[in-house]
């Protein structure tokens, strides 16, 4: 599988996961909305009683607070779904068969290498990104391929860090998923504030 195909597959999988998340959110949103509508009706009843005593200003304040509570509950539910989806994606990437995992990170390494003299730092529990993989990448880099597997290991979950002097390029699973999550959270924020 070529590097572009692997990236395209990851992007397609991420897009599919994003669509799945959006569908889950819409499904949960309808149920939450019905529940929240009941709560809002109750708030309205309470507000009517208070409005007779305190006037229109008090009613507006209570309704605004109720709407804010509902928005907070909806946002919390969306975040919970997003957390679950990204944890599933993280686990699926970690559980990739060795060949697919190695192909994915070989491709990413080839795309990330700048000079070919970087040091490759891997997760302390990762044995799939090893010297054989580094040798394969060096062969593909031909004359500039002089990557070295670092004896230093870090707790990065999966993926790797390329180190050249003081410069580090983090291509860990955590960083990749965080980037994808930020994009989805922007979309969620737009949906929340458009309503």
Give the helices and strands, then pairings.
Elements: H1 3-54, H2 56-94, H3 98-112, E1 119-123, H4 131-140, E2 148-154, E3 159-164, E4 167-172, H5 173-194
Parallel strand pairs: 1-2
Antiparallel strand pairs: 1-3, 3-4
Helix pairs in contact: 1-2, 1-3, 2-5, 3-4
Describe the model.
This protein is an alpha+beta fold and 195 residues long. It has 2 domains: 3-95, no CATH class; 98-176, ATP synthase, E subunit, C-terminal (hypothetical protein PF0899 fold, 2-Layer Sandwich). Helices cover 71% and strands 12% of the residues. It has 5 helices and 4 strands. It has a 4-stranded mixed sheet. Strand 3 and strand 4 (167-172) form a beta hairpin. Helix 3 (98-112) crosses helix 4 (131-140). The relative contact order is 0.12. The mean pLDDT is 78.
A few lines on this structure:
The chain has five helices and four strands.
Query: Mean of residue pLDDT?
Result: 78
Oligomeric state, counting identical vs distinct chains? single chain
Q: Report the sheet with the most strands, covering strand number, pairing sense and barrel closure.
A: 4 strands, mixed
Broad structural category: alpha+beta
> How many separate domains make up the residues?
2
Q: How would the global form be characterised?
A: elongated
How do the helices and strands follow one another from N- to C-terminus? HHHEHEEEH
Instruction: Please state how the strands of the largest beta sheet are arranged side by side.
Output: 2-1-3-4
- How many individual β-strands? 4
Strand residue percentage: 5-15%
How many helix segments? 5
Percent range for helical residues? Answer: over 70%
Radius of gyration based on Cα positions:
24 Å
Uncertain segments are none
